[in-house]
Fold:
Amino acid sequence: MSNVTRKMILDPIDVVTGECYVERTDFSLPGPIKLDWRTYYTSLLKTDGAMGCGWTYNYNRFLVVENGFCAYIDENASTVPFPAIPEKGESVEGQDNRYILFKEDEGKFRLHLPDKLILSFGNSVRGLLRLEKISNRNGNSITFLYSGDFNLIRIVDSAKRILNLELDNSGHIVSITCSQENNPAVGIRLVSYTYNKNGDLIAVNDANNQTSRYEYDDNHRLTKRTDRNGYSFNYEYLGEKCVRSWGDDGLFRGDMIYSPEKRRTIYKGCDDRIIDYRYNENNLVVEEIDPYDRVTQNAYDDKGNLVSVLDRCGRRVVFGYDDHGNKVEEVDAEGRRTTYAYDDKDQLIEKTEPSGEKTIYNYDDRGNIIKEEKSNGDITINEYDAEGHKILSQSSNQMPKKYVYDQYHQLIGIQFLFGGDINRYRYDMLGNVISVWDGKSWVNHKYDNMSRLIEIEYPDGTIKKNAYDPEGNPISYTDRLGRTWKYRYKARDQLIEIVAPDGSSLKFDYTKADELSEVIDPNGNRTEYLYDMCDYIIGIKRNGNLYESYERDGEGRLICKRDSQGKILMTLAFDVANQPIQRIIERDGKKIEQTYTYDDKGNPITAINEYANVERVYDPSGKIALEKINDKGIINEYDDTGCILRTIFDDGTEFRYKDNGDFIVVRDPSGYWHTFYYDGEKILQKRFANGFDEAYDYDLDMKIISHKI
Structure:
């Protein structure tokens, strides 16, 4: 079972099973198939595997083919059974026809997953077939090599990087090192692991040599984990269920009371809030009752798909699925329906919006989108090379682009075919962009061993710098003028202070439930935030005195704002789709009413008060095509990717834009045209108007220091 299907609380605990569950990503490597090395811990898993007792990793997958039984076992030990073992050259389907198992040869199988990836299994050991390869339909793959005793020792990713795994005498993974295919002798340590004599993982040391630590009881249950900044969470158990969790200083303290015979769990938080969870026979939460006895209900079909949500205000959202588990329908609280259609390969081929607008998708034999057509006539056509790289993209309203890649599948160039502009990119071994050419100059980037950006060097020699704490929170930023901003944190990555270059600071504090509770500005002024039991703001204090208070409905929406004396400042009303339809502001004894209406997509189309009447018309993609304010109009035109092309005003003023959103040509009300030129940082360099050329120079603070005509 993945974390997506669980209902988790605290840090985190499964409200149904009571298991303590930890998921971490130790490193990621880009490529045609991204390689994420994820490790998981669950207090219910007692086996001692490659990551120690209770731990596993995301490529620890098997196929069981034995005594007429056939099943796929994923990294969380969830099982997908198949009705039979297929014959050579044949296939069978499992779990709602979403998994297709094909037998290539004796002891060789290929499994097609719902996410369109393909798993290859072979070399049976102790009745289990090992994962040998993950591939896509473009022929890209991640391959896995094992020792004779079933231990993973090498991975070759889809960008031709080699990952070597070092093991201890017990078969535990103790380190992973990365090198390039053409230079295997030069390696980078990505992560290392330490275990105690009981086989428990007790330390994870990252590429920056920063360590996360773990402690366990005699039953291999996690009792304490400490992050790289030294902050700890603690866990207490009753039987196999975690009944209490708390962080340093009592942060996120919570108690759980489990009643499996009633299919019920009660959570009591650090501020005495109580949440009541009810679940069904499949361990899916069907009711959540908040501290004010308001109920959210979830309904599922017999395959475990979520088919409806009824929120605390009585609004219902409905979902529909086909036999393969693909979502084919979504109906919101106002009855607006979005539908989806798929081909026999479960590829989305048509999406219909509530407005009736359709988008149709066409694919090549490898599953790449080669044509996207909208009902408004916009068409995008893509071309791909033999390895699935997009090499050409052209659309109705956008300049064609050509893409170039290196032998490691990295994008190294983008060229606008008719404009001549070329962007180029260089990479390090881990796939980080280290240099960018914008057509005029190179801008260089540096990273730490965790692939965090630490430096940008510009052609004039100026530098921007970033620094991070062990958990990856930014602790300082230095701009091109050498000015530095500093950031301080406390428990659970909570930002508590920002110090500006002049030494002034902005300070923050938080509740035990991790909500922002206080802000102190550089002048010492204090703003406090007050919350209800559901963590909604209900009041603000300024320097100890009540400033404003808020009333909310059952869904937490603001419906009334009052001043310190209780006088109403504003009221709000909403429709069933959670959209504000009326706002009344009381000012100087006068009420100003503003009303709103929406189209069937939820876009606001009118906003009316006694001073102004605003009307909007949208194109099929949801962009504002026409906006009128008291009968004065503005027209916008976009390309099929949503980039703005042109804006026209009633007085004749017209803006035309480049792909990046900078306007490059402007017509003023007198009919004169102005042309603008920008550098790679989007800074205006030149302007041509009425026969005159104007040029600009800037200092490092982007202030104009010269203007030449």
Observations:
- The chain is about 0% helix and 55% strand.
- The two ends are 68 Å apart (CA to CA).
- Residues 528-601 form one domain.
